[in-house]
Amino acid sequence: MSAKILAIDTATEACSVALLVGDKLYSRSEVAPRDHTKKILPMVDEVLKEAGLTLQELDALAFGRGPGSFTGVRIGIGIAQGLAFGADLPMIGVSTLAAMAQGAYRTQGATHVACAIDARMSEVYWGRYVRQADGSWQTVDEECVIPPQALADNIAADAQTWATVGTGWDAYPQELATLPLTIQSSEVLYPQAQDMVILAKQAFEQGHTVAVEDSSPVYLRDTVAWKKLPGRE
13-46 pLDDT, tens per residue? Predict the structure, then answer.
């Protein structure tokens, strides 16, 4: 039987929800940087009603685990944990950077993607990915938070054309122009739940789920603290 997976994301300025039922996708998305807490649950209700399902009928709940806005990531995982706990669902954390790579493939068929999200404080959240034949994404540059001008010293030139995704390219155009890469811009600025749910399906089929109490965000910055659920060390 085909998996039924709900994905939610509030890690950046965008707020999105997607429900995958077999090959059928139901999704909602809106750029609403200050209204995530108001938007996300109504979006969840809408896609469930459209599909004629309840939370308890799903197989897993996926969430944007970061990196991204500290507040946004925290909102997303908190809501996801609440929903999953109430419906007794396993959870799947999906990288926001990998989700944007999937978005570039969905919108323009890109198979080599360079992701840069504006991380403020003169830094970007960075990662590079190459799509494999089975639809998974191989990590070329591990996701990190780094000053954009420092990337040029850490990246080797190659013969590929890299699709650029994320807000970092517009935020730091001069610094990122020094990278020894051939790039092609895309329209993907933010991660989307409709791309996360595709990656979540792959993880689900491989048995890569976690219990609610073991789900965790990825902030990349060591200076932020996450208040863990009761009983966690």
Answer: 999 999 999 999 999 999 998 899 999 999 999 9
Count of CB atoms within 10 A of residue 156's CB?
Answer: 6
Q: What is residue 226's predicted lDDT score, i.e. its pLDDT?
A: 38
Exposed/middle/buried for residue 132 (C-beta within 10 Å: 0-12, 13-18, 19+): exposed
| Fold adopted by 97-185 | Nucleotidyltransferase; domain 5 (3.30.420)
Per-domain boundaries in the chain: 4-96+191-214, 97-185
- pLDDT tens for 135-164 read 999 999 999 999 999 999 999 999 999 999
Nearest CA-CA partner of 40 in 67, 7, 68: 7
CA distances for 102 relative to 9, 94, 105, 154, 157, angstroms? 14, 11, 5, 24, 23
Least confident of 59-63, 97-101, 102-106, 224-228: 224-228
| Residue carrying the six token digits 């659920």 | 229
Report the CATH fold assignment for 4-96+191-214. Answer: Nucleotidyltransferase; domain 5 (3.30.420)
Count of alpha carbons within 13 angstroms of residue 9, beta-carbon side: 36
